[in-house]
Structure formats: structure tokens, C-alpha cells
Amino acid sequence: MPGDAPAAHFGGERIPFMKRRSDVVFWLALQRVLINHPLIANQLLEIYGSPAEIFRAVRSIRVQEGPIHSLKIFDGWDSCETDLKSCEKMGIQIVSLDDSRYPPLLKEIAARPVVLMAKGDLGILNGPCVSIVGARKATSHGREVAFELAKGLAKNGIIVVSGMAYGIDAAAHMGALEEGRTIAVWGSGVDRCYPSIFHDLSQRICKSGCIVSEFPLGTHPFPVHFPQRNRIISGLSLGTVIVEAAQKSGSLITAGFALEQGREIFAVPGQARTTMSQGTHELLRNGATFVENAEDVLAIITPQLT
Fold first, then answer.
1. C-alpha distances out from residue 284 to 244, 251, 252, 256, 288, Å
2. Which of 199, 233, 242, 195 is nearest to 213 (CA)?
3. Residue span of the structural domain in which 150 resides
4. Are residues 152 and 299 in the same domain?
5. 45 with 97: CB under 8 angstroms?
């Protein structure tokens, strides 16, 4: 890196991070510190305008705990520099909130990620997307329905978004790849494929589509990350289709995010009184659009594309 720029002083205190760092490094630092607080990150950006200004400003704020304190004491600048170099080496693209490549639909949500890491064709994040999600322990019928739905949507130019989990998610990605492209949103860093059994699937997705994550490189797939990443799945999409879901399914969290974001919610009916139908039937009772095939989704989505 270039040598140090003249040091800045706030109240007589020398600020050690005032090096000639790239703007991307400040974005990566903000991502690291506030990864679990996207609303706060967005509020601070509205106030101060940029991550660099946020880190400068918090130095003079007297707090002893919480997210602001974490920003104030952050000293992981070298790690952020290393991440930037690693991304360049691995062909991982870093898309910050001020980047023109940032997905416009995702930018509309309140808790938008401040940084996205992406592998593959970044351009498809701007295309017409529909997400398909559902149970990990899906039935064979559910997997077949998800596959055919995704295939039908992809054939008509819709990009299918899902979370690359077992069951419905994997079937949706595979169906989309039969006729078009798909986006996988991960609950880990984009350098950590999870589940590892889907390594080959992830490679197929990257060849024509894209893998994205808001989590820094090296982030493990902790359970708490998956509900958080679900807002990105729905946020990228014009609508979300739930194929199978129990009453406490994570897929219903995705549907909840879609509702908050003002997006379409679709549900596929299942057999009466079966566990995997309870969640989808509840969605249908609450006004979700009844879906049997891709044409049902296209009938609602297509007018939004004109």
C-alpha cells in the first residue's frame, strides 16, 4: 500500500487509520463491524454519507458499548486489506451500496446489505428475479414441483433465486439450470460452500449465474446467518414462491420478509393434514397467490416487467 497520508487529529488524538486506504476497504470494515446490524449501518450512511466518514465521526462519540463502540475500537484494517487482495485473487467481486452494479430491487429494502460479495455473472442481479424456497426435508413431490416451476420460469427469462439448501432450494437451482440461470444466496462467505455436497452445483451456478453473500470472506455457515440471508433472497425478487413448509419453517421467514418488502407471495398447495403443507396452506389462507405451475407466477410477474 502507499505510505501514510498526513495524520488527522480529533481533539488532539492522532487517528492511526487515516492511511491512504481505498474506499472499498472502508466498506469492508463497515461490513465486518455491523454485519448483524444492517439497519444501523444504513442509518449511519444516511447521516454521514460514507463508511470513511462514519469511522472518522465515531471517534468523537462517547460510548462504551454497542455497535457504535465496536466501530470506534475497530482495528482490523489489515484484515480488510487482506480480504480485498483475496477477492482480487479469487475473482470475487465486491459490490458496495454506492456501486452502480448494486441490485436496484435489493436497494429498496430498509435492511439492505451494505456490501455484497459475488462470484459469477454479476449482471444477472439486475434481471427479473423470482425466488423459490421451501423445506429442507422436502418430499419427492415437492422437489419435483420446485424443479418444474424453476425450469418453467427460467425458460421464460426469469432468474430463479434460492438459498442452495437441501430439498426445495437445490431442486429449484437445478430446474433453473435446465433452461436458464439462477442466483444462490449463501449464509456463509462466498469462499465457503455449504452444504459442501453442493460444490459441483455451486460451480454450475457460477458458470451462468451468480453466488452472493453479505458475509465477509471466511464466515462459517452458523445457523443464525440463514434467517438473516433470507431477506436478501426475497429482496432480490419480484416475488417469492413457497413450495413446501412446516409451520415453523425458515421459508415462512422469507415470506415474512417478502411481505414487509411489498413483494408478491406465492404458495403451492399440498396434501391436507401433512406437516409439509401446514405452512403453505397458512400462507394461502392469509392471501398468498395460489400456484400450480410457472404460468401462474408469470401471470402476476410479467405485467411488472413492461
1. 12, 14, 12, 13, 5
2. 233
3. 104-305
4. yes
5. yes
Note whether 188 and 221 are within 8 A (CB).
yes
Give CA–CA dist 269/272, Å, rounded. 9
Residue pLDDT tens, the chain, 306 long: 333 333 333 333 434 555 556 899 999 999 999 999 999 999 999 999 999 999 999 988 888 899 999 999 999 999 999 999 999 999 999 999 999 999 999 999 999 999 999 999 999 999 999 999 999 999 999 999 999 999 999 999 999 999 999 999 999 999 999 999 999 999 999 999 999 999 999 999 999 999 999 999 999 999 999 999 999 999 999 999 999 998 888 899 999 999 999 999 999 998 887 888 899 999 999 999 999 999 999 999 999 887
Q: Which residue has the cell 444492517?
A: 38
Contacts of 126 (CB under 8 A, 6+ apart): 101, 103, 104
Q: What is the distance of C-alpha 285 from the center of its chain?
A: 28
Contact 288, 266 (CB under 8 A): yes
- Report yes or no on 173 lying in a domain: yes
Residues 142 and 244 sit within 8 Å (Cβ to Cβ): yes
Look at the chain and report how many structural domains it folds into: 2
Residue matched to cell numbers 417469492 = 240
